[in-house]
Amino acid sequence: MAPDAVLSHLHRADGSATYTHNGYCIIGAVNGPIEVLRRDERPEEATIEVNVRPAVGVGSPKERHIETLLHNTLRSIISTPSIPRTLVQITLQVHSLPDEDSSTGVSPSLTLLPHLLHTALLALLSASIPLSTTLTAVLIALPSTNTPTACTQLLSPTAIELLRAKPIRSAHVFAFSGEGKMLLNESDGTFSYEEWDEAAEAAEEVCCKEDGAVVLAENMEVDGREGENLDGWLRSVVRTKVEHEQRWKSAR
Amino acid sequence: MPQEAHISVNERTFIQDAIKEQVRLDGRAFDAFRALELTFGDEYGVADVQLGKTRVIARISVHVVTPAPERKFDGVFQIITEFSPMASPAFEVGRPTNAEVVLSRILEKAIRRSNALDTESLCIIAGLKCFALRADVHVIDHDGGLIDASCIAVMAALQHFRRPDVVVEGEKATVLSIRERDPIPLSILHQPLCVTFSYFEEGELFLVDANLAEEQVRSGEVIITMNRHGEVCQIAKYGGATVEPYALFNLTTLALQKVKEMSKFIQTRLDDDAKKRNASGLLSELSAENDRPFDKPVG
Which residues in chain A have their CB less than 8 angstroms from residue B80's CB? Predict the structure, then answer.
């Protein structure tokens, strides 16, 4: 199923998004460009601050690690030189996780990462922060099989699928920019270079092929829309947003 | 870190003058709450409260710990309130603002210290194992009335939460998952709810459920926590406005009326949710809990 997104629903934040996919629900908010602390101020570009807040408890080193990854990835898509000496503050609140998330055998930071990236991007779009490109991300899991040649990749698997395919040998998160350049790769587990290459190729298909109906998961084509990949999904979300904002023009 | 934008002098006098003429900016009566909305998540113990534009999510979670040595028969119950920049850019992570300190203190007094939750029922094996319950309060959107909204969210989430069942054999305790045994509701002794009264004009006028602009203009506040039986759990007063002692009696009467309305609202929402979960009517068959006869106590 394609992810579900609601944009600009919070009143205080400059931009906000709620993103639901496969049982993961994340609320993202962006404030920016706002005043920055003197010690964080950069003369020629904007400072980016990412806060990830878990559903239960306060932030731990795991969240700090995810924040670093998000910070580095988002820095390369936000057009920071166009808003120098300001702060872009991104807050991501994990609202709910699937029940099975902790028992999948895949590092929970990897399963969460693509969803956090998408939420952050949607919130940035909602806040109209200047971006140099967009971003799409996907999780790929390789279950361990006896014959490594016949192993099937799990593209953007749900927590239940991961649980059924246990044990998972390796998991990879890839993020691609709108132009199809790889922005982020996080891998966990044991894998050969060929497997990684195959996974990267599959991820690129899901994330950013413009034409050709690529099937995201087995049950993907139920929606019946053409070219159902993440790039297409992102475009449809932005189209809805723009249509909503321009409704004063089309109203008669 | 950016400061909270202070309300301008014009806006301040405008709100004050309007209140003097018995008008609120959003047209509400002085003793009216904003529209209250309460939804529960798919999981047990998640309550999403919307009070006007304010939105608070409370989430209850549980794990097993060793109880404190001086309180062998008690479980652990914590309420965690941490503001994030989502609610306002002035809220910084790791540096609590005044509002945050006040909120956590009031919730502590209102819910934890009034013994709304029977912590002894969280004990599994005395001195060895007990449940640690934590309530995380996430402020998603901030437009005033955080204390009232958070209190509703925490109490609704507590009433919605089901803890897993345990089997004790001697020194060994096994926590049964939701699939194995139907989870058990918490034992809640009473349902305290907060009502905040904002004072204007040096204690001559007061409003119920002020929004953010009114909160910035007010000269003082009185927070009353009551349950629907009319028992006052705590009264707190902040700010400089002078409040007559007798006026507090009036406030408690008004608070009781509001608390009764809110309790009723929470109960209808809980019943709706229970009905939705128990569509086939099989849930009562699965329950391992004994019925508690509610007889009148002797004497």
Answer: 57-58
pTM of the model: 0.90
Give the total number of structural domains in chain A. Answer: 2
A8, A9, A11, A40: best mutation site toward chain B, by most B Cβ within 10 Å?
A: A11
d(CA B283, CA A180): 51
User: pLDDT tens digits, chain A, 252 residues: what are they?
Assistant: 688 999 999 999 999 999 999 999 999 999 989 999 899 999 999 999 999 999 988 888 999 999 999 999 999 999 999 999 999 999 999 999 988 888 888 888 899 999 999 999 999 999 999 999 999 999 999 988 755 554 578 888 888 888 888 788 899 999 999 888 999 999 999 999 999 999 999 999 888 766 544 444 444 444 444 446 888 899 999 999 999 999 998 876
| CATH at A69 | 3.30.230.70
DSSP B121-138: GGEEETTTEEEEEEEEEE
- Write out chain B residues lying below 8 Å of A37, CB-based: 1
- Alpha helix positions (H), A182-229: 193-208
Range of the domain at A129: 4-208
Distance CA B57, CA B51 (A): 11
Question: In total, how many domains does chain B have?
Answer: 1
Are the beta carbons of A96 and B89 separated by less than 8 Å?
Answer: no
Query: Is B179 an interface residue toward A (CB < 8 Å)?
Result: no
Residues 6 or more apart whose Cβ sits within 8 Å of residue A114:
A137, A138, A139, A156, A173, A175
Q: Is B140 on the interface with A (CB under 8 A)?
A: yes
- Give B299's contacts (C-beta < 8 A, 6+ positions apart): none
